[in-house]
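Thought: the user wants the 3D structure for the chain below. I'll pass the sequence to the structure tool as-is, report back what it returns, then summarize two notable features.
Action: structure_tool
Action Input:
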Amino acid sequence: MYKHLRSINPAPYSAYIRLHPTTILSSSPERFLSYSRPPEFRCQLRPIKGTLRKGPNITRADAERGLSGSVKEVAENLMIVDLIRHDLHGVLGEDVKVSQFCGIEEYETVWQMVSVVEGKPSSSLSASQSGEESVDLGWKTLQHCLPPGSMTGAPKKRSVEILRELEGGPRGIYSGALGYWDVGGGGDWSVVIRSCFKLDPPYEVALSPKEHHEEWTLGAGGAITALSDRESEWEEMLLKLRSVLRIFGAETDSS
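Observation:
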């Protein structure tokens, strides 16, 4: 299934994890956070806000007009970029920059609008850290930036409180982070979108082959702002779902 997912929806942060009883298949296009090993510590976040379906008659110029030409989409990017800058300032100090704002990137099935925020420890912070503290800096940055701002909105704490009231239950792994942290202090994490997972039954209650069935869970959504259009948001959510549903031979409609 994972190979099929990679073939129909290749993505830079695809992942397969099998840790009984959980299986995760991911074709995430979004880097949450990467950080290099000290002493040359650098980190990067690549939030995505803005999705447009690809089609034979949709060119890059069309995508730029539809995404970077949209007041709503640019406002969402600006909100998340500002949130991320605030998160990084809290752990790294002043040396944070936006190296790309509202860039248009092409993927297998969609066009996405992506911004890039990068940071490194300020000179005063670097001078005050011991070797062990430097190795832990990536982990501290990850802790400080969770949950991904592109999945919460801003202000983050209050947005999460409102989402908890509005949503019918916990999101599970959807909209979380998936990646690695190596022994040298480097790491790379994606946002868990365009992904699905299943939870196997315990061995002692495993079903017979005739009774066997699998239950996979998928998550999808979109950012709702004052400028949102209900039908457009619904269509964007279905577009995100289709990229994963196709491995099950399923489709979505607009109803």
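Final Answer: Structure generated. Helices lie at 2-8, 60-66, 71-92, 123-128, 131-135, 137-145, 156-166, 230-245. The longest strand covers residues 96-106.
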